[in-house]
Design brief:
It is a single chain. The protein has 9 helices and 9 strands. The chain has one domain: TIM Barrel (Alpha-Beta Barrel). The radius of gyration is 17 Å and the shape is globular. With about 220 residues, it is α/β, with parallel strands linked by helices.
């Protein structure tokens, strides 16, 4: 079984190769290590390799990690966020990637104003019509984008999406292309991160313009 260091080296090589195919600079790609189910000790090992961005899905799991690990880690919230957990997440996560409804946006605003912070967010767009899949529908995303741009206490940094989980490369590529087209319509100051691409499709995502990858299994291996 390869070590974490070996996995990270291989990932960097694959990212560089994907960038080379489309004439991109690997330095424009940020990797968020998906640390759901990963112990603080293992995260610290990844930190020692130079990783600084880590993504968590559940506040209950993340809270102990935030206290135990170095404070220069940039934490990303990448799981479904219940409105009753917003008060714990705002101000503690560098980026909330999962804004997909007005009620969540309003709660983030309420907590951010109370804390006197401005919370960076991404809007999560649903790229596959799968039962239970989170995200705002592509057709409804422009209205949520407009609402977010007008919301004090919140700053829009871009978009996030999860491609269909399939072996059909054309379907994956088409979903990423639709998200990129929407991203390119954002005002220039809000086009900071296009978060698309996971362990099984990140090379396609790079070729289609992703600037942020969310990598878990490819980095840490299969979770127990």
């Amino acid at each position: 079984m390869p070590s974490l260091s070996e996995r990270w080296q291989l990932l960097q090589e694959r990212i560089a190769a994907a960038c080379a195919r489309v004439g991109r600079d690997p330095a424009t790609i940020r990797v968020v290590a998906v640390s759901k189910g990963i112990t603080p000790e293992r995260i610290a090992e990844a930190y020692a390799l130079g990783l600084r961005d880590f993504g968590e899905n559940y506040w209950q799991e993340a809270r102990a990690k935030l206290d135990a690990l170095p404070h220069d880690i940039r934490w990303h919230f990448i799981g479904h966020l219940q409105t009753n957990k917003v008060k714990y997440v705002v101000g503690r996560f560098a980026l909330i990637q999962v804004v997909d409804r007005v009620s969540l946006l309003q709660e983030i605003q309420r907590v951010a104003i109370r804390q006197e912070v401005v919370q960076p967010v991404l809007i999560e767009v649903r790229l596959a019509e799968v039962e239970g899949r989170a995200g705002v529908a592509l057709s409804d995303a422009p209205a949520l984008i407009e609402r977010t741009l007008e919301t004090p206490g919140v700053v829009l940094h871009g978009l996030m999406g999860v491609a269909p989980y399939t072996d059909d490369e054309r379907a994956i590529r088409a979903s990423f292309q639709s998200l990129r087209r929407l991203y390119e319509q954002l005002p220039a100051p809000n086009r900071q991160w296009l978060s698309m691409g996971m362990s099984h499709d990140f090379e396609i995502a790079i070729e289609e313009g992703s600037t942020m990858l969310r990598l878990g299994t490819a980095l840490f291996g299969e979770r127990a």
